[in-house]
Amino acid sequence: MTSRDVEPILDINGDVRESEPTLDTYESSTNINEDIDSIEIDRFHLARILFFMIGLVQLLPMNFLITADDLWNYKFRDVNSTDTHDKTELQKFFDSYLIIACNSPFLLVYLVSMTQYFHRITIDLKIHLAFIFTIITFVVITIFVKIDTDGYQNAFLKILLILVFIVNAAAIFIQAIFIGLAALFPLKYVQTMVAGQAMSGLFAASTKIFSLLGHRTLVNNVFIFFLLANLVLIATFALYLYIRKKPFYSSFVYASSSLENNVPMNLSLFGQIFKNMWPFCLTLTFVFWVTISIYPSLFVLITPVDHETVIPEKFILPITCFLVFNLGDFLGRYMGQFVLLTKNHGYTIMIISLFRLLFIPIFLYCNAQPRHHLVFFTSETFFIIFNFIFALLNGYLVLNVFVNGPQLMPEEYRHMSGYFLIAFLGLGLTLGSLTSPFVIDLL
């Protein structure tokens, strides 16, 4: 493959046009994947299993931390009071602190990915460091579950938020790197990774429900809950270390990463990427802006009209809120593979994402308590149906963005598209976090 002194201009179809020589780059090979695919095979589908597991662990720390809401209420309770209904200041604001700590690393990842020093680091070293930081930090968080922090709640809050920031920053690096790498493989590998992302929330919700089935104490339940997350992280890293040496994986990744590392990073190039991908970038922002503005903050306030339900009270919230949403999100990403839009339907995907704004007033008129307005959808059955449809669209749109967005890039730029999409995902999460309190005030 020969280098040429031309500036790559990316058109809307993802093709490269040549202009005046200003930038050293590499000529894209449009049939590289087809040639490699005809030589190597994915034995026992191990590479595909790896991408599913990678999708699972990308969002695993955040999903497990958010789902363990009962632990944080216990950790930040008033130890001198027996009344569990009156929340302390730490309990009231912890969810907001947690969401900010989970989402704020996105900006850091984007800024770091723009530096020349970051792109001098090999792909392998980036992945190794990201996994090591994720595993070690989550192990420390798990240990704190067993430690009595009643005597220093404020200090523990600061330590915990720092750990949450670090573990999510490392997980976001994993997500950004592998979104780009997956685009170098056949389409089914991207779809498998996106399905793994959805399974992360479903896995956290299901594990939480199963942890409540026994008669263990709250601390022991959450400790086992977090311990399982650590085992999944370690198993995924071990699988990666094994797969990375296999011919099928290395033929795709290392044939491209050598090109990517030589591409100069500058604002002009990022502007060209945005010009190609902007409908998908904005769609990703809209999707997570709307989702985070009401989930889980508004959803956890939905209460059943009939308190004498067949479902025990401790299972109502994990099932109707977390399990239903994550099941819908997973099915949206899975079934979306069979009705996938093409990369030329960026405007259509963006319009569908704007349509989801209608769900905000719909959920506001469900039985969320406390409130100052009348309830229109009194039965929790309505909430479950709306929750499922809302999540289904969430998963379908995210699948289309992650599959089609990088495909608009020439092969040597697809790895950078992962960092770009992650930046707009983080923007959506941040806007959603800031919007959420205002939505709650509308009740």
From TrEMBL:
Membrane-spanning ranges: 49-72, 93-113, 125-147, 159-183, 189-210, 222-243, 277-303, 315-335, 347-367, 374-399, 419-440
Keyword vocabulary terms for this entry: Membrane, Transmembrane, Transmembrane helix, Transport
One Pfam match: Nucleoside_tran
InterPro entries: Eqnu_transpt (IPR002259)
One Gene Ontology CC term in the entry: plasma membrane
Keyword field contains Iron: no
Topological category with respect to the lipid bilayer: Multi-pass membrane protein
Molecular function via GO: nucleoside transmembrane transporter activity
Protein family according to the UniProt entry: Belongs to the SLC29A/ENT transporter (TC 2.A.57) family.
Protein name (record): Equilibrative nucleoside transporter 3
Source organism (scientific name): Dermatophagoides farinae
